[in-house]
Protein 1
Amino acid sequence: MSVNLYLYRLKSRIDGLQKKYANNEIKASVRLCWWSLREMFRTLFHSFFYKIQKLWRKPQKDENDKLRIAVVVSGCIGDILIYGLVIKELSKHINCDYSIDLYMHERDRKIILDFVFNKACFVSKLMATKTHNNFQDYDAVIGIDRCTYVIHYDSECVEKKSKWLGDFCKKNENFFTKHHKFFEHMPRYHAIIEQWSILNGKSRIQQSDQCKLIGLNNSTHTFLNLEPANLEILKSLKLKNVQYITIQRGVNVHEKLSQSTRMWPIRHYEKFMKLFHQAYPAIKVIQLGYSNDLCKSVEGVDINLIGKTSLDELAVILKHSLFHLDGEGGMVHMKKFLNGRSIAMFGPTSSEIFGYPENINLKGNGCNSWCEWVSDDWDKKCLRGFEEAPCMASISPEMVMGAVNEILNGRKNFSYSVEEDNIAEDKIADHIFSKNADKKIKIVDVFSKNGPSLGKILRKNFDDITIFDMSFQFDSFAKAEKNGLKLEYGCLYNISMPDDSSDIVIWQNKDRNVAQAEYVMKELFRILKPGGMLIVSGVSFQASNLRFFEILPAQCSSGKEATIFSKTLVN
């Protein structure tokens, strides 16, 4: 076992004993001594057994060639979404056959791992456990807690298989040596990390790429898979073609806090509800939350879903809301990963770190400084002694309504139509060439059966081509880069592109029958620029799929031939 690995496990044990025996130092010391002795004998036995096993077992070829990586994470939904983004982007650079096993300290949060990494092909196994006795079996063990750190790695093996990962481990080890206080007594040292991040111009997403090797920023393509079966909740709640917003008043569910300095006062929520309904009577308000014990109901909401949704259903409802209103927290991060906008209210946490540029990030004038992890109880009571945190209380309902008006009054109205149909699939490239002369246009191919092949053809005339898919080989990204293409993970019901951003969107479906095809079309039209071209083939449309767009199925090709749709801005 490496020294780093032993120290990592020792630190985890000490933190656990401090929490469990906070008022009994003698008992904590005895338990730590017993753990150390047991760990020493266990390590010696494991090392001896592992060497004997290697002598007698003939290794398989894939065991020799595959780079075995473990990643250890901790936190709640917002943290895990961001750490998932780190892992996704890291996997693109490895460029050798690999497996990534993901470990989480908190066993009760396995549901979060299952939700975030649903169908994420860049992760092999998901494990939520407090014991990591087999870490020495991995070639590299990487931890992420705000910053990224290396727990253990076999430098000779890693550098031989992936020069990039070897360099990554070496530079992050050097960072750890220089900034070792960042990683001591987590999360109490998060305040130091935040200050370092502000000084270095890093957002929450960029914190974990402190050495700038992965290339993370607020524009990095996110990922979050939505299953079509979960879209049924919109129909059951009669929200399928209804405009609505979502709100939440709650924080970290695992801290079991029903009141926190991060929460906007309930009286402000209730005044906001009156102002909102007066200004926008046709738009419904849905309140989300973990449980009634932790999230107080707001008077005046149209639908109260506190404690009534799974994570998958929650994601669907958030995805299709006009915007989400909340204090800084997990659902704001989730809305970002669902390619939507939030009005986020900041108090004890820093808007410089946690504020996404596409959101409206509100800060009151009740306090000049954030105070996250300045003390252990920063989120339970105001550090200045106020009964109600003035940082959040000073954000008035009128301020929030100003943000709401900015979003809703800035909405655009579009009309949709069929421009051409019965375009043969093998003529799609020729059709695009004939209609577009600008090399700089942005082309996006989503989950098509021959996306990379078509991308290579289009690359002859166009510079910016992105291909989305659910799975790639380890060397696919290097090959795509060599061919001038960009490859991205993704989901057909949640495409990681901004609104109105793509000149041409292509979807060549592999199976004519598509579940919830109207939501796929809604997503494709969302990312299409007004005046752009949406090319769809291999879909048998029903009237229900196209009713929202006022298009008739008879206008569309139903076989392998493609239909060309357009999107027009209506003043």
Protein 2
Amino acid sequence: MAKKVELTAALKKNFGFDTFKGNQEKVIQNLMDGKDTFVLMPTGGGKSLCYQLPSLLMEGTAIVISPLIALMKNQVDAMRNFSEEDGVAHFINSSLSKAAIEQVKEDILSKKTKLLYVAPESLTKAENIEFLKQIKISFYAIDEAHCISEWGHDFRPEYRKIRANINEIGAAPIIALTATATPKVQHEILKNLEIPQATIFKSSFNRPNLYYEVRPKDNNVDKEIIKFIKANEGKSGIIYCLSRQKVEGLAETLNINGISALPYHAGMDSQTRSTSQDKFLMEEVNVIVATIAFGMGIDKPDVRFVIHYDIPKSLEGYYQETGRAGRDGGEGQCIAFYSKKDLEKLEKFMQNKPVAEQEIGKQLLQETASYAESTLCRRKLLLHYFGEEYNDDNCGNCDNCRNPKKTVEAKEELTTILELVEQLKEKFKAEHIINILLGKKTKDIEAHEHDELDSFGAFPDQDERTLDTIIHQAMIAGFIAKDIENYGLLKITKAGKDFLKKPTSFKISKNIDMDEEDEEADMPTIKAGGGAADEVLFSMLKDLRKKVSKDLKVPPYVIFQDPSLEAMATSYPINLEELQNIPGVGAGKAKRYGEKFVELIKRHVEENDITRPEDIRVKSVANKSKQKIAIIQAIDRKIPLDDIAANHDLEIDELLDELETIVDSGTKINIDYFIYDVMDEDRVDEIYEYFKEAESDSIEDAITELGPEDFTEEEIRFVRIKFLSEMAN
């Protein structure tokens, strides 16, 4: 217990945070105990702190291996902001002069430096290796660790050499960190870094608010999409296509049919792309048709649907793109159109690539096809792919769970599959097993003389997809596993061997041909908002917000965010006094923007004879405390904020809390004199521009979008106060 208190105190002292996020504390404790550590944590989860804090607390200098020079500089600047000693953090890479490198080495040797960032290329240089041999290294941190794996989405060959360099420099605990890794990628990271016994910390991949559906793709796709969007008028959505040509064509089709849509792809000039993105954020258009180039740089919280016109090349890509829906926790519909013809096209695109790359690409496509064709719970399949178990039988939020298919007994087929895998000594992939059972004389089967086996042609009347479903469902049930070392080879687990000894009922869902139209299945319609009791009023309030937003030339969220509108459409405030008690409104916003909203609500209540909830408590707004008045007066006199904090016995984050309360209440303050003294103008401008374009003023969203490695939470909070004071008050 003492250790926990000590870490929390260190967090508060060094970074100003009161509590850790997620697994941060356990990760840090594990590393400080001298154990190798693997961290799988989504972007914005606070990966950097997992090595920054222990570096300050442990003896020696921590070596952080990072692929991006720009991120190194920003992280070093951020660490220096938290410390009185500039030498606390340094980087060595190709951008530094010899004189600068000598200064870095001097600080390290004098034990000032706790964190040293290096590019993997810099780590291979003999002079750097010789220097690092002289110092005490607390631990090695490998950031963006997925770069090690050819199966990762950003493979870097130089990452393969990191372990050899570490061996030459000297042993110390290793922490590897990444935001995305399937079991295969995770295994490669651990193997290549030679840390097989590392403690693994994973955050969940489950997004319970997202609805997953796969639809058969035919000549009516455009018509279906138009029908869907019109049934969900006013909702924001992204449609992903694989080709630029399809992006342009579909955007044009939507516009011709009365749907305001814009294209977005890498072939457009940056100004046009930027304009399209801004119009989407400002809700001037609701639909963007894009290649995967879109969405990386934004975090619009209320994207209500993501449609894949073409099936993606991998489940990692699919998961990442669908993840742009419902980031506010509200409803998000993820609909993919699938055709085997699209898969064949994607395979043809790979033909000019190296054989090893083709093999990897085909395996990834096969996983995507299995997902698309499966009758199992989509959520269970996705989480299983990322190595996470989902134990509910029915998630209630995917097409296969909402409309379960008829089940059929498959005990005989599974028994035969398991016996065949065992007979072939677990040396073949699912495709080979299926071809044997169907009686297909492929080159591989004839070469191994597997057409002579008793099980050859055991199920001539079965279809390929049903057998694939049995294998996939057996994997999820724990009877079969894929050999990660030799990707795709089927292995029988202990549970599978137990099943062979005593087979029990094993039911699978009956397949529907994905290349045929399923007449009964309609694309879902989306309910307005997430929690509004009066959906009609909620829609009217959104329309009014859009009009006010356009008139004032500010993003809609600056006026009121969706949760505030939902609360208005539930409790019906009909005057400014009631409105200011709505979450996210306050006295300042009520006074500045509220008149038109309460007029609309009052008219709606009267016209529809609505009885408002009787238990609405109108809270009186407390007078500003003496401390708040003193803080405002000190700011008027341009006293530095750290001095104001000290005078009131506050930490800087506690002062920021007070300033945010002051601004949220509608009081305008000007802290430019302090901001521009502690921050570069271009950094202030970048954060300010983010808030101008963003759909949310959430600090957490801003950190995720701007990058925790690039900007500190403190910097973002300073500029947010400036922004809200100028734009919203």
Protein 3
Amino acid sequence: MKNKLLIILLAFCGVTSCQNVLDIAPSGRMSLDEIFTDDATTSAYLNSCYLNFPKWANFNSTSTNMRIALTDDAWDWYGNPAVPSNKMYIGSATSTNPILENEDNRNDNTDDVMGFWNKCWQNIRRCNVFLSRVATAKVTLESDRNRWTAEAKALRAFYNFELIIRYGGMPIVTSPLGLDYDYKQLKRESFKACVDNIIKDCNEALATPEFPWRISAGNEAYRFTKAIAAAIKSSAILFAASDLWNGGQNHWAEAETNTKKSLDDCLANGYELYNKVNNPSIFQSAYQEYFCSVTDWSATPVDKETILASTYANNDWIQFHGLPIQVAYKSGLCPSQELVDAYGMQASGQPILKLDKPYLDEAHLQPNYNPGSGYNPVNPYVGRDPRFYATIYYNGARRKNSAGVLTDIQTYYGGNCGINVNVRARTITGYYSKKYDHPSATISARIAATYRIMRLAELYLNYAEAANENGNLAGAIAAVNVVRTRAGMPNINPASKDEARLLIHNERRVELAYEENRYFDLRRWTKPDADLSATDRYLTGMWIIKTGNALDYKRFSIGDSWNTATGSWSNTATPRACYTNKYLIWPIQLVESRRLEAASGKKWQNPGW
């Protein structure tokens, strides 16, 4: 019976028998009792709580960032049915084949066979072990003990948050589960109860004087800080108040209070938007430069906006999400026409489409234009939001080719980067992604960029959304306009809460494009009994035909191609199948859900799976 319980315990917590209570230390294998008798080994055990930390923006020849590819912002497909994103598009994910889980936490460019669920639970257990021991551990400096305790609580909050936004409410486990644990006590708590527990951990970490707001030395790079705890707290309560997770309750007053406190605390402790272009000969805007840079660790950093950065400095973008003139292996995450349509006009500050009903048809082929924006469909890429030019390569944009020669990008059919739905190195939408592409990088001389996981602009937008939903229109508008000012866009001035909501949602899409937020935003904004058909089922691109010097812009369903001879579409478009209700929440792997159900006698699997 003990052996059976051990198997269940390890399956749930995602650990192996040697990782459960042992850690490698300089003197060899040590028991927990031995580990917590020394500063160095106690600190080393805390470091183990960072093992297998989720890796954002990991790309290689077959994989992509699924949380971008599965939104209405991009399409990643080049005809290979084995590519994980294509498996999702055709709706082949099952609880026995959890494509999302294994793709979501890839490490070192290899398939992560353990999966996201296991690794989060593994690190929650490590945090629990550390917190159960650190109070009595032999530590030389009490300041270290206090800092490490706060750090472990912030880490535990992070892993719990990452679990619940994917799988829904989880058990609240705050101590290591022993072999005598009665699993019939184990149950899934409500989303709000989980968030309350996460906020409790964050608040305790934030109340610790020895826990720093920023890492200022390279030898401590990527350690957690108070700013990370504040950001987790801000996002967690925003999710708890949103339609998918609020359980029919109104939590917006609490969300406004917490998001405001998190934002104000970060601002008071040296965080600010990246506002200055340091290399104007290379970059057109501070926004563009920020996403092509590497986070620096110092007491006076150039980058004061980043709160949490990926440990993986990505230099693969140019190869796996690049341009034919750079001889990229594949075009990768091609921006959709829907994302392009989200960027407003700089002069008027207005969106180009009516946000309450952007398209007149289900397939998004008939745009519902906002007549006051100043947008011209015949010159579609002129005068747009500066963030558009920092994020998307379009027909007429410029980029150095592989020989270092500044070249016009031609996305029209037959152009040097022309659209071709059958070739992996060619765009399938009429656009290429740009956000993390350093203008001076080449395939042979790549330049790494840090992938930002949490940053101050998101905290401004979290507060704006919560304030608006709680009836504080003035506070919401002020927060959004800070972000727009950095971008070089005019202020918004909505007349109502409903109008502000549309503008705030669109601002999140534009400001946070290609940062994984929209995947979860679309889901949390969706009611539990609804689906994603309005956003994730039909996506479009721009097919451009050049005749002489004239350009004919044709919106088309992704997957179609234009036959010039017949003057008609191929009708080979492929609407996505991963838009139904069950795709709002991830499945628990079948083997895990069955073990948990057998042990606890309760239902664990998410609806539809």
Protein 4
Amino acid sequence: MPAKKQAVKKKAASSKTVNSKAANSKTPVYDESKIKTLSSLEHIRARTGMYIGRLGDGSNPDDGIYVLLKEIIDNGVDEYIMGNGKLIDVSIKDIGKPGAATVKVRDYGRGIPLGKLVDCVSIINTGGKFNDDVFQFSVGLNGVGTKAVNALAVHFRVVAVRNGEFAEAIFERGKLKSSRKGKLKEKVKDGTLVEFTPDAEIFKDYLFNAEFIEKRVQNYAYLNAGLTLAFNGKQFMSKRGLFDLLYEETGDDGLYPLGYYKGEHSGNGQMEIAFTHTNNYGEVYFSFVNGQFTSDGGTHLSAFKEGFLKGVQTFYKKDYRSEDVRDGTTAAIAIKLKNPIFESQTKNKLGNSEIRSWIVQETRNAVEDWLHKNPVASKKLEQKIAANESLRTELNAVKKEAREAAKRVALKIPKLRDCKYHLEDGKHGQESTIFITEGDSAAGSIVSSRDVMLQAVYGLRGKVENVYGKKRTAIYKNEELFNLMMALGIDNDIEGLRYAKIVIATDADFDGFHIRNLLLTFFLSYFEELVTGGHVYILETPLFRVRTKKETRYCYNEKERDIAAAEIGSSHEITRFKGLGEISPKEFGQFIGEDIRLVPVSVNTLKQVPHVLNFYMGKNTPERREYIMKNLIEDAG
């Protein structure tokens, strides 16, 4: 056979084989039958993250179960804002029982209109929040919140009481099971009761943290002076609003008495601010919109900062730099708007641009007026600004020396294995993470198993310096800490942060605990806002591996180890991991992937920070030695 004909024949045979493979492929057919239309409640369950953000298990204050609670409390707060009901009662039954707690929220407002009760809790875009006459400054503008709670609860019960009559509806995972109406035999105050049990199929092994809830309830009280909220019998109430919030956070650490202002803007908005300065480094802000804590700030917070600077500049008649005025600031701002625009359903950041001018002007006037009325405070603030100017000049000189030294050794941030996306990359960088590890061994395990798109690794050469009580210039003179700041992008200021999450990944032994404390001292002393902004975490890794030839389980404590050993049979072997470097890269991948366990580092109040740092990192007192012997060593055993 001629070569040309043979080639054609082979090509045809090859083509036939390819077509045959295509015909026999398992690729599903994509046609009209594959198009689905979900009901609103089905969509909430299928795409839960769109409505409540992260799911979580309750170990983080931003986890979904707390969002569900917030959505219901918000309704009671909205009633109070409109002048109805001065008490909201919150209780959680079986709060310490994983996956089974039931929440009850009772407000004493007007009560949901009885004839629309079922619609208001189950049909998306249905509710009274669209009507300015009955709700002026509401957080829940989208008609979604309560419906999301309903859809994501294995049990949901709502009762509305109005003028001696009631209506009740009971749902299961968003589906109506029963409803009834009637007249009450006894006199009961108007209002709404919502009872729900989060669905354990969605919120795996969830557990409510009472401290997180108390903090949230306390904030509601600060933001709504005169409103009483009770949680499991404990009452929270504030008479002075944000003034009380800021005093609780700073105590007597303020350099001058708290500044405070509350006013209304042409009937379209309200603003309340409180402020002071401390000797701490950096800036700390608490910002709220219609009672919603905006953890990522937004236009209201940026306008407040601008107005505060202008007020100070006008009063002192000096063109102060913003960083000199703001360093050491602790402040709070709460505004109420008729039509807030948030950048996501979870409402962490405000986007209204039209509010900027009036917030800037009102803040400027309020700050200038307060300084005129408080001459002692104005003198203290002037001294603080002068100290900040002096420190900035000194820091700039030290930074320059540090950068020149880095250039001389051709420094390219040693020990950093970077990732592709960073915080500045918008949506792509929202999950960017940097792991801070001790030594090359631990770093190697993470580097080999990480997601190179979103996970960076920085390996420390050893224990970092204890910076407790030292001037800020000291961290720029320390090569290890300077390199760490460069890796994080905070060598100039906090605005340059390159990663959404900073994860401390140290061994679960004495040296690991010590390095962890040294790093936390560094962050809390000089970059407190990284902690208060929810950027710092501690990585949990398994202490034990229990396995047989057929099954392997990883356990994070002795209790999990004993349960695993009892369940998988007598032929098991147990491995105790002494350090991260002992976990192979193949194994390590699962501990920094979808099932990663992160413990957020948080502080209850800012005024506790100096005391805690002094106790752990100050002079080695007998009390500290006794505490460490009793707690850390027992835990590590």
